């Protein structure tokens, strides 16, 4: 499995926004944050918002004490992708070609949509056991082409 790193400057931006929004009751980005996110992610930001428009809340699966977390994103063609909260990896084709291959994108729309959903608290939590987590993890890599 190949993992790419979100560049430090982009990760720092995400964390700053996350930190600001954490304490807010109404969780949303300011116009300035949207501009900053757009300059960091470009067209991928738009695609991530399209995902979140279609699926306003994402399912997350977490084990006891949130030690292990996976976020599920429904993709095109009824495919389903699972990503980790802070790891820049997705089994989708865009990640493989645009992020790891051409390095044309920082990340894919699934990873970014997952991160945005977490920041804005647009998630539905499902508690799972360690065994179930391992099964989800396994199925995630089976779906990799
Ligand atoms: Zn992806």
TrEMBL record:
Gene Ontology CC annotation, any one: Shu complex
InterPro entries: Znf_SWIM
GO-annotated molecular function: zinc ion binding
The organism's place on the tree of life at top rank: Eukaryota
Keyword annotations: Metal-binding, Zinc, Zinc-finger
Coiled coil: none
Keyword match Signal: no
Domain SWIM-type: 81-119
Protein name: SWIM-type domain-containing protein
One GO BP: double-strand break repair via homologous recombination
């Amino acid at each position: 499995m190949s993992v790419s790193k979100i560049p430090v400057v982009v990760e720092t931006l995400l964390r700053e926004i996350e930190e600001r929004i954490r304490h807010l009751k109404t969780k949303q980005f300011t116009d300035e944050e949207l501009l900053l996110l757009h300059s960091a992610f470009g067209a991928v930001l738009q695609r991530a918002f399209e995902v979140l428009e279609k699926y306003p809340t994402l399912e997350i699966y977490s084990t006891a004490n949130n030690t292990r977390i996976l976020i599920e994103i429904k993709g095109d063609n009824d495919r389903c992708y699972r990503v980790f909260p802070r790891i820049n990896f997705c089994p989708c084709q865009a990640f493989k070609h645009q992020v790891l291959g051409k390095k044309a994108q920082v990340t894919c729309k699934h990873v970014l949509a997952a991160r945005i959903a977490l920041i804005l608290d647009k998630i539905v939590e499902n508690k799972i056991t360690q065994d179930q987590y391992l099964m989800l993890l396994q199925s995630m890599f089976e779906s990799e082409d």
